[in-house]
Amino acid sequence: MDNNQKASHHWNLNAPAWTALTRAGYDIYRDYLNTPAFFGILPKIEGLTGLDIGCGEGHNTRLLAENGAQMKAIDVAEYFIEKARETEMEQPLGIRYEVASATELPFEDASFDFAASFMCLMDIPNPEVALKEAFRVLKPGGFLQFSILHPCFITPHRKNLRDSNGRTYAIEVGDYFRFLDGEIEEWIFGAAPAHLKELYGNFKVPVFNFTLTQWFHAVIDAGFAIEQINEPCPSEETVKKIPYLQDAQVVPYFLHIRCRK
To answer: Is the whole model's pTM more than 0.90, yes or no?
Structure first.
């Protein structure tokens, strides 16, 4: 099994638990930090044609459609697409979902005004190919906006350092330049209750980490011009409401990049 098959295989296995837990509200970082920050810098998309690359069960695709875009979306996991289509049938937004790889988009050149990708590109073995594919299917002047784990702070070695009150005061990182090349990382949403963690077990996610330099080179080599970057940080008000997010005030966990063709 090559790395592309490995990534597809594991995300198909992860998809049922991922769908159940995110729809139950346990992806706290997504719902209260990462996705709101992503939409906070997103240009106006009303009336535009868009593509969501690595859409999962369609949560963020639906948000894009609710903002007025005419959306298509792809993911490698059949289960994700099945659940997204079921929701589309129940709550129609005009979204077309397809099983496909980010590295082989089933669309003609210059098909979309914009593309978005939420926390997908760092989970595939060759994101530079996916970026070139996104460039290909965009119209001239179109943009791609994507979010990834922050490569400087989500590293092969990482440890959360807490004080006696359980408050994070630093993140210890290391092995920044060590490429994991599909090494399996096991984890589950920390906010999920114990009985659900026991029921579903850990996600098994192949890791294909890039350095910040490699990400920027991949974007530029694909032909894009970078026009916006963002490192989401929760406000004090948000942390008071959701104390679980406090550690994301110490270092950025996510990186957003918007680039234009």
So the answer is: yes
Contact between 96 and 72 (Cβ < 8 Å): yes
User: Which residues does residue 206 pair with via DSSP β-bridges, in sequence order?
Assistant: 184
Q: Measured between alpha carbons, how far is residue 203 from residues 14, 16, 17, 163, 188 in Å?
A: 6, 10, 8, 28, 6
Q: What is the dihedral of CA 158, 163, 166, 169, to 10 degrees?
A: -50
Torsion angle of C-alpha atoms 97, 103, 108, 109, degrees rounded to 10: 130
What does the block give as tokens for 115? 């593309």
**Residue of 219, 225, 201 lying closest to 127 (CA atoms):** 219
Phi and psi torsions of 170, nearest 5°? -165, 155
Q: Are 233 and 250 in contact (CB under 8 A)?
A: no
Nearest to 213 by CA among 255, 160, 157, 261: 255
Residue in 29, 61, 66 with CA at minimum distance from that of residue 150: 29
| Domain chopping of the chain, boundaries | 3-260
- What CATH number labels 3-260? 3.40.50.150
Residues 194-253 have pLDDT tens digits of 999 999 999 999 999 999 999 999 999 999 999 999 999 999 999 999 999 999 999 999
With both helix axes pointing from N to C terminus, report the angle between 127-137 and 212-221 in degrees, rounded to the nearest 10.
30
CB atoms inside a 10 Å sphere around CB 259: 23
Give the pair of three-digit tokens for residue 218: 């991949």
99-108 confidence digits (pLDDT tens): 999 999 999 9
